[in-house]
Each structure stands twice: as C-alpha cells, then as structure tokens.
Amino acid sequence: xxxxxxxxxxxxxxxxxxxxxxxxxxxxxxxxxxxxxxxxxxxxxxxxxxxxxxxxxxxxxxxxxxxxxxxxxxxxxxxxxxxxxxxxxxxxxxxxxxxxxxx
Amino acid sequence: xxxxxxxxxxxxxxxxxxxxxxxxxxxxxxxxxxxxxxxxxxxxxxxxxxxxxxxxxxxxxxxxxxxxxxxxxxxxxxxxxxxxxxxxxxxxxxxxxxxxxxxxxxxxxxxxxxxxxxxxxxxxxxxxxxxxxxxxxxxxxxxxxxxxxxxxxxxxxxxxxxxxxxxxxxxxxxxxxxxxxxxxxxxxxxxxxxxxxxxxxxxxxxxxxxxxxxxxxxxxxxxxxxxxxxxxxxxxxxxxxxxxxxxxxxxxxxxxxxxxxxxxxxxxxxxxxxxxxxxxxxxxxxxxxxxxxxxxxxxxxxxxxxxxxxxxxxxxxxxxxxxxxxxxxxxxxxxxxxxxxxxxxxxxxxxxxxxxxxxxxxxxxxxxxxxxxxxxxxxxxxxxxxxxxxxxxxxxxxxxxxxxxxxxxxxxxxxxxxxxxxxxxxxxxxxxxxxxxxxxxxxxxxxxxxxxxxxxxxxxxxxxxxxxxxxxxxxxxxxxxxxxxxxxxxxxxxxxxxxxxx
Amino acid sequence: xxxxxxxxxxxxxxxxxxxxxxxxxxxxxxxxxxxxxxxxxxxxxxxxxxxxxxxxxxxxxxxxxxxxxxxxxxxxxxxxxxxxxxxxxxxxxxxxxxxxxxxxxxxxxxxxxxxxxxxxxxxxxxxxxxxxxxxxxxxxxxxxxxxxxxxxxxxxxxxxxxxxxxxxxxxxxxxxxxxxxxxxxxxxxxxxxxxxxxxxxxxxxxxxxxxxxxxxxxxxxxxxxxxxxxxxxxxxxxxxxxxxxxxxxxxxxxxxxxxxxxxxxxxxxxxxxxxxxxxxxxxxxxxxxxxxxxxxxxxxxxxxxx
Amino acid sequence: xxxxxxxxxxxxxxxxxxxxxxxxxxxxxxxxxxxxxxxxxxxxxxxxxxxxxxxxxxxxxxxxxxxxxxxxxxxxxxxxxxxxxxxxxxxxxxxxxxxxxxxxxxxxxxxxxxxxxxxxxxxxx
Lengths: 103, 502, 306, 125
Hints:
The structure holds 4 protein chains of 4 kinds.
Chain B: H1 7-24, H2 27-54, E1 60-64, E2 73-77, H3 80-98, H4 100-106, H5 112-131, H6 135-154, H7 159-190, H8 195-208, H9 212-230, H10 238-245, H11 248-274, H12 276-282, H13 284-305, H14 309-330, H15 333-363, H16 370-373, H17 376-379, H18 381-395, H19 403-412, H20 418-446, H21 464-482, H22 484-500
Antiparallel strand pairs in B: 1-2
Helix pairs in contact in B: 1-2, 1-5, 2-3, 2-5, 3-5, 3-11, 3-15, 3-21, 5-6, 5-11, 6-7, 6-11, 7-9, 7-10, 8-11, 9-11, 10-11, 10-14, 11-12, 11-15, 13-14, 13-20, 14-15, 14-20, 15-18, 15-19, 15-21, 15-22, 18-20, 18-21
Chain C: H1 2-15, H2 41-85, H3 100-107, H4 109-113, H5 118-126, H6 128-149, H7 169-191, H8 200-218, H9 220-226, H10 229-254, H11 278-302
Helix pairs in contact in C: 5-6, 6-10, 6-11, 7-8, 8-9, 8-11, 10-11
Chain D: H1 7-25, H2 29-51, H3 75-106, H4 111-124
Helix pairs in contact in D: 1-2, 2-3
C-alpha cells in the first residue's frame, strides 16, 4: 500500500511539473490559465496526501476557484475570450464601445 | 511605568484599526484620523525610547499572546527600534502635511480615502517591521507594506505612474519571493520562527559545520530579496520611474521611509537572526560592500546624465542607499553606526527634496526638465530654499545632517586593509559627483530663465502649510547636523543592545 | 502517422495556433501590415524584404531571450536543488522541524487553546499576530483593487454584456442546485474550524465562491440586491475591528505585568462552543475572506461593489 | 544522494524556478502573474513537505484522552501555508486589476510595448 501511495505521489508531482512547464511555454494566455487551474487542483490533491486537509480545502477553493474566476474575468474584460463566443465584428465593436465609454 | 511596554503593540494594532476606520469615513475625516494616529504613535514611540534609555537593560520583549517564545509570538524593543519607529512616523507626518495640496491635484477626490488607508497600513507594516521578533510575521508585514506602497503609487491620476507602479510591483514581488524562500529554508534547518531561537540554533549549527550550505544560501536569498526591495545597486533601475512619477508625498514616503524599513529589517536579520560573526564569515558582506560602492558611483553618474529634477533626486537616492550598504558591508560597529546615521540623514532629507521638487515644477505647470525649471526658485521661494537645504545636506556640507554620516564612514573605514582605500576613494568620488549634480541643479533653479513658458508666481500665503513643513524639515535637518552627538551616543548604546541582548 | 499528428498538434499548440484560437493570439508581429496599393511594385517589395529582415531579427532575439531564460531557470534549479541535497530527508522523524515547539503545539494545544484542530489553535491562538496581519493583507488588497478599478458612483452600468450565464438553462439549473450546497458546506467548514479541518480561510473562500457562482448564474443585478455594497462594507469593517479589539485584549492580558487576566477560557475540547476566541475569530476571518473574494469578483466585473 | 529521498522538495524547487523565471523573463503581464502563483505554490509545497512525517496522522487530536504528540505530523508548516496562500491571491488580484487598467490604456499585454508606448508619450509631452 505504501508503495502505491508513493508512486501516486510521484505521479502527481510529475504532473505538477508538466503543468507548470505547459503554463510557462504556452503562448496563449487562455491556455495558460486553463492549465494553471488544473495545476491548482493537482496541488490540492498533493496537499491532501501530505496530511494537510486544511490546505487542500483552501487551495481548491482559492487556487482553482477564486483565482481562476479572476483570471477569466480579466481575460473577458480584455476581450480575449469574447471572440470565442461571438463573431469577430461584435467583439470589435464591443471593444470600441468599451473604449469610448472608458474615455 | 511598566505600562509603557504595551506601547509598541498598541502602535501597531491602533494603526491597523485606524485603517479600518478610514475605510468607513470620508476623505476629510480619514485625514484627521491619520494625523491623530501619527501624533499619538509618535508620542508612544518617544516614551518607549525614554523608558528604555532609563531602564536597566534597555531592552524588553513583549509577548503577543499568552505564551513565551518559542511557543508564542513576540515583539521586542531596544533603543534602535523605537528610534526608527519615531523617525518613520515623523517623516510620514511631515510628508503628508507638506504634500497635501499637491495630493488634492494628483489623486481623484473619491480615491483620497484609499490613499490615507494605505498610509495607515504602510505605517502599521513599518512599525511591525521595526518591532517584530518573528521571521514569518516579518514576511507577512513585508507583504502588507509592498501592497500598500504599490497602491500609494497607483493612486495618482496619471497612467504614467501606473506603468511605473507595475515595474515597482514586479520588482517587489521578486524581492519578497526571495525573502520567503530564504525564510522557509531557515525554518527547515532550524525548526524555529522566532529570532532568539533561530539565532541560538544557527550558532550551534555553524559551530558543528552542519547545514552550512543551506544557511549560506538562505542568508543570501533573504539579503538579496530585501536588497532588491530597498533598491540596492544592480536593482535600482525601478527607482527613477517610481519616485519620479508618483505624487511628491508618495515618493517622499517611499524613498524616505519604506525602503529604510526594509533596510532596518535587513539589519535585524543580519545582527539578530544570523549573527554578525556568521555574516562576516560567509563572505556576503564583501558582496554588499562592492555593490554599495558601485551603487554610489553608478547612481551619481546616472543622476548627472538625467535632465529631469525628480529623476535626478531618485537616482541620488540610489547613491545614498549605496552608502548604507557600504556601511553594512564593512561589518564593524562603527560602520553600522555610520550606516544608521545615514538612514536618519537620508530619511530626513529625501522627502524634503521631493516636496521641493514638486513645488518647483508647480510653477511651470508640472514640467520637470532643467531648462524649463530655470529661475523657478524665484517663483516659489520656500521650495527653492528647501531644495537648497536638501541639496547641501545630501552633498555633505558641515552643519547639515548629511555631513555626519560621511564623517563617520571615513572614520570607520580605517583598519580594513585594502577595503580602506576602496571606501575612502568611493567616498571622495561620490562626494565630487554629488557636488556636480546638486550644485548644477541649484545653479539652474536660481539662474535666469532661457525658455519662454508660462510661469505662475506662487506666494507664501497660498502654501502656508507647505512652507511651515518645509521649514520644519530644514530646521530638523540642521539640528541633527549641529547636535549629532546625542543621537550618536544613543546609537552607540542602541547598537550594543541590538547586537548583544536577546 | 499518429506520432506526426501529435508533434504537429503540439507544435501548433506551442505556437498558439490551434484551430479554434487562431484569432486570439495577440502577438503583434502576427498581424499582417497593410500596404498602400498606389506604391510602386519595387518599393513594396523593398518594404516587404525589410519587414522580413526585421521580423527575422526579432525572432532571433526572441529565440535568444527564450534560451537565455531557460538557461537562467536551469541555473536557479541547480542551485536550489543543490541546497535541497543538504537538507534533512523528506518525511524524516528526526528533522530539525520536529522539535519541542511542534510537540508543544500538538501535545498541549488541546488543553491550552481548547481547539481539537491543532492548526486552527496554532494560527488563531499561539501565532494570532500573523493571522491578524494576514487578514489585513486581504483588506489592503481589496482597497488597492477598489482604488484601481472603482468607478464613480453615478457612472452608468454597461448593458452591452449580452452574454450571461443566466440565459443558459443547463448552467442555471446546475447552479441553482449546487449553490445552496456550497454555501451550507462553507458555513459548516467555517463554524467547525476548531473541530475539523477548515476554519476561517477555507470556509470564507468556499462561501465566497458560492456567492460568486450565485452572482454569475442569476446576474449581478440580482446579486447586488441580495448583497449590497453597504452590507459588504459593514461586514468587513465589523469583522476587522472585532479581530483587532479581541486580539488586543488577549495580547494585553497575556503579559503578567499588566495585572489583568483573560476571562476567556478554553472550554471543553470537542464541544461546539469551545476554544475560547477561536470560533469568533474564525468567523471574523471567514467573513473578511468571503467579502474580499466576492468584492474582487464584483469590482472586476462591474467596477463597483454592488 | 539526497535527491531521491527529497523528491518532494526537489519538485517544489523546480516549480519555484519555473515560476521565478516566468515572473522575471516573461513579457506578457498575465504570464507574469501566473508565474507568481506557481512560484508561491512551489514555496508552499516545500514548506508543507517539511511538516510531513512518515506514518503519522493529520494533526487533529481526539477531544478526550491522552495525546501523544509524536503520533501526529507537524502543524506549523500547514498554518504558515494557510496564511501564505491568501497573500498570493491578494497579489494576483492586485496585479490583475493593474493589468486591466494598463490594457485599457495601451491595448496590449506586452510589458515591453507598454514601456515603449509610455516613453513615446513622454517625448510627445
């Protein structure tokens, strides 16, 4: 049983490093944010294995939840996601409207 | 009289509490709360100095909780800690009173409340950095200080200052992450978080030769982190942008107080956590000495090359911080005394220079280059006088505060072999460079104009408070310069306590 | 064949050119520069070659920069791993961290603080000053974000955001089902911080995410009616002031020379109302965290607290 | 060779190095923020792995009866990390707010371009 847990632990750590490298190397911010959210979830499991359930709960809520929401909201504010859902022209006109309103 | 022992903790908690109160109030009330807090807490810091001066040991540790160290948390006060707390409070008070008029212009009216909240939080964080006796508490309050000082920069209306704030934030983040990992490494080899316990464990570990490598790395990481945050030589490039674009009050606080707070924490780390012996053995002091000397020269050269008055003042900050690191790098008690006095002189002078530079640039509609600023001192006389006083103090003319540390540095430099020559040479070169750029600026602001731009004559009556503040600052500067002996003897006593009593 | 597919896909992903996101890359050099039609052919050609050269140069410096940063990363890695090599082993019972402090926290913590969860006892009793600082970090961050993003009070709220989740039947239904559960779970974690894993930070964060989900699904206008800006402000101020005052009391009474003894005892360990100040402090921290998270969301989304 | 025993610490240091490199060298400001988060979690992983001891329990003691301290893992790192996680959230929120403001003005996330545009503006002034 101990060996299995150790193997599992190593697997999780490897996936953490892979996620981190993927976040660092991906050129699109959107991809990086998504990968980072998964990184946080893996981190929560790692902390559970380190016998720190307090940390696991906090990391799952804060790292994956709030942080992810904030990143996506920012991307949306910058109109970097809008284009996924709308056709290009609406996004562009929205951006212009936004710019005018801000100024 | 034992009640005075509560004062350090009351200062910290009261300023945190006042920041919460300011959140509920409007700007005007928030300002009065801030003034009230600063006055009260300076009185408290002063009484702590007096208490320690006349008590037997001159030092006390105060439990933050019901248990002694290493179980509970602690704060401690010798003579240096309350002295620097008092200094920081006075400087913050003078900067916000002097920079108030300009603040109204630079910060949106609805956002001024947040400015005062941030001042209160910076104050709380600085007090904690002065008094703390726990390494993780220090980290937490470093973070508060970082966020609050970034917010002070961001509060200005101009987008330009946002860009500068971004650079400052990134540098601060790099610094605090290095500090954090250093702290964690220290914890992992010692198993303690409180200064006295870490000190004991480190001495024992160093004697046995165990964990020497991680200890050196941890020390290096903590020192480099704090050095980045306070703007030591290779990392001083954020300074001109940051100090040059913020509102004068914020740049005065940042350069005069916040960076000094980090340096004071660094001193605590070196002398109360690691121990001076290990610091000297690890060889890091030589690196600090070299960087300090380089910073003195490079900062001054950059200041000569720029043609913007606030940028010049900011670069001169980099040079002055180089002096402090040079003193730390020498590693003796005399050099430490000189470095501490340099902190005092610089904290008292830099805000005055920034306020005066702001006042001067007000006469020509916010322009900051030397050509436009010619003859501006005639249009705003108090600013001109203050700038002259500050410049003379920074150059190191006797009777001003800036002279004393230079003298102390040259005294302390003797007896270090080849280091003596380096330090003396650096002092000489740096003083000459200082003379070049400060006197050029002085000549510029008092000589007749060459560019034809609209100028505004600013009369005393319009800037009464500013005038009073600037004159008070100049008088304090002169007093410290003329009567440096009480402060020096206080420092001598304080350094003994700082190094020896835990 | 599969291998080439994978390498191609990986390369595309690495370049940021996957089919669904070709438009989204904001690398400026990718955007083609428009040429004026009336320029003569050779001029256009020359411009193009120049641009190509410039692009190549930029790519070369970019490549150099990338290589340099990777080398930097490897150096830092090497130094730090070299340091780790000298540290005590992982999961070692004789490590320097397993010292008398730890034994005191676990062994005596239950009797001294009344908390069954040692972590809660540690952060809210033995080392409460850190936690006080920590909740003020959150407060500072809230103020800083408000300073940066808050709009004037009478500025109109933009109606142009046509895409909200409240139009989506699946998301709306799932959120309706899930939000009460999340909030109840958050409250449970918050109130049982001294008895089970959790406490102020985790419970507050969960509550905060619950409210954020609520605001997302029902629209911010509805959420603003339920949780007003004033309520957020009042809760934050009250919690922080309570934290300050109660901790001042316990710091003050913690030192014998003041001659005052704390009237707050640890209670019976394991009871719901036990642990002295830990339960109320957990609540205060939880409310602060919750309000902070929720107000981050609202300020980012709408530029103000409600 | 301590690396193989200390695999948890080694991983955390790798994470720290990756995050630190992202924070220092990435030109995209969003990437910098992600790097900051990765770096912080790396340090926290290091800290948490300091507290873990083989074959010991989560530090939640029974309400009654004898408590043998040596049966439980070290709670100190967990407490420190708990307070630390909140710092990184605050910082990322602050930086994201800054990003929004900068993007509104300069329409780019690339910091070099922002500095360039900014200095151009200065010259125009």
